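User: I've been trying to design a sequence by hand for this structure and keep getting stuck. Would you show me what you'd pick, starting by listing the structure so we're on the same page?

Assistant: Good idea, let's start from the same input. This is the structure you sent:
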């Protein structure tokens, strides 16, 4: 069985997710579970489909961080 471009992209996204989650945990662990942070990162990566793989970690982290901050803001009365 041969590897496809899609397989390569999926593998790259999986490898992108873990380090981003680890960088965001110290910043948000008091507010969100590890699972919630991981889901936010996964959603951010999915929404960035088509972005060059080399740019994915930085952009995914930025998008996920903003989404987590927005969730915190929405909790405030």
């Amino acid at each position: 069985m041969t590897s496809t471009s899609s397989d390569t992209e999926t593998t790259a996204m999986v490898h992108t997710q873990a380090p981003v989650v680890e960088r965001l945990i110290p910043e948000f662990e008091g507010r969100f579970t590890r699972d919630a942070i991981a889901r936010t990162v996964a959603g951010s990566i999915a929404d960035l489909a088509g972005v060059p793989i080399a740019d994915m970690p930085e952009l995914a982290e930025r998008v996920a961080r903003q989404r987590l901050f927005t969730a915190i803001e929405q909790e405030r009365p």
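That's my pick for every position. To get oriented when you compare it with your attempt: The chain has three helices and no strands. Residues 5-75 form one domain.
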